[in-house]
Specification:
about 350 residues; 2 domains; globular; ornithine cyclodeaminase, domain 1; 8-stranded parallel beta sheet; 12 helices; alpha/beta; single chain
């Protein structure tokens, strides 16, 4: 039997007594390690490349549904190259705001020692999710439509704000960003927060149709429902556009993905599981490949200006554990967080 390479475990042991204690990190402490947007995008790229090369272990997310519109998801993953092993336990309760004045999403990430299995850390997963999700969209846009001059974002909550800012780091030719939300206040708040940080003009869309017809690249981060809302109509979408939903096919007419020249997903296994659960009532479109394969250079992305490409990214645990492990590394070296006894 080959001896284990315990160098990473030995490094960790300088900061934490594995098996006797673990580190706890709040959301603010995760933020305080100082990761920049460029670094988050680079770390997410590494996770996607590992996924594209099949250098990971990640069963499809499973869940429970205590309310018809709500879910808990368990998302385990292991990325050997990053010594990142753990699980994210995340929830989405869309009616939280009106019922309890709480955000709709919450979550925790647990990281474990890959050699003994003992927990190393428990940390907030909300900020990690809020960072890696727009990073995936930004990387997908760069891989599939690098020359785009217009970007449209549906949904102006936490994810919408992240998308509008992150996209400017990968689409270098952007001239205008259109946004749309059913809440006027949400659009105003996005512009007030993000516009001072980016050089690209943000425009409030008058309607979903205007945004859909005005942009080369489109994304959505709204709600995830089994029955498609079909807010964006099939006839509004043209050849040559790139669509990057984070909310399955909820926001879009399913006909769009069905007629796409390339339908790409982040995880084939997870999308097939969602189909079994009932999130694709009209059937899952034929899948061309996974976005990690495109980013890793194993599959071709856009091959013609006329191609209509849809890339559905619903979030993968490989992204969470890799970003979480980088946060843990920095927190340990910076002395951030609280050690809790086991």
């Amino acid at each position: 039997m080959t001896d284990l390479d315990l160098s990473d475990r030995q490094w960790l042991s300088k900061f934490i007594e594995i098996g006797k204690e673990m580190l706890y990190l709040t959301q603010e402490e995760c933020k305080s390690v100082g990761l920049t947007i460029e670094e988050i995008i680079d770390i997410t790229r590494e996770a996607l490349i590992a996924h594209g090369k099949k250098e990971y272990e990640m069963p499809a997310k499973i869940g429970i549904h205590p309310l018809p519109e709500a879910f808990f998801h368990a998302m385990p993953a292991y990325v050997p190259s990053k010594h990142a092993a753990g699980i994210k336990w995340i929830e989405c309760f869309p009616k939280n705001q009106e019922r309890f004045n709480l955000l709709q999403t919450s979550g925790l990430l647990i990281l474990n020692d890959e050699y003994s299995g003992w927990p190393l850390a428990i940390m907030d997963a909300m900020w990690i999710t809020a960072m890696r999700t727009p990073a995936v969209t930004a990387l997908a846009a760069q891989a599939l439509h690098p020359d785009a001059e217009t970007f449209g974002m549906f949904g102006c909550g936490v994810q919408g704000r992240g998308h509008v800012e992150f996209i400017t780091y990968t689409l270098k030719k952007l001239k205008k960003i259109y946004i749309y939300d059913i809440r006027e206040k949400a659009m105003d708040e996005l512009i007030a927060e993000v516009q001072p940080r980016i050089d690209v003009e943000i425009v409030k869309g008058k309607s979903p149709e205007e945004v859909a017809k005005s942009c080369e690249v489109l994304s959505s981060a709204t709600v995830i429902l089994k029955t498609p809302l079909k807010v964006v109509k099939d006839e509004w979408i043209s050849k040559g556009q790139t669509i990057l939903p984070c909310d399955l096919n909820t926001f879009w007419d399913p006909l769009i993905a069905k007629r796409a020249d390339k339908y790409i997903v982040d995880s084939i296994e997870q999308h097939k599981l969602y189909e079994q659960i009932g999130y694709f009532p009209d059937g899952l479109p034929e899948i061309y490949c996974e976005i990690g394969e495109v980013i890793a250079g194993l599959k071709k992305g856009r091959e013609s200006k006329e191609e209509l490409i849809v890339n559905s990214n619903i979030g993968m645990a490989v992204e969470d554990v890799v970003l979480g492990r980088e946060i843990l590394n920095r927190a340990l070296t910076m002395g951030i967080g609280r050690k809790l006894p086991l």
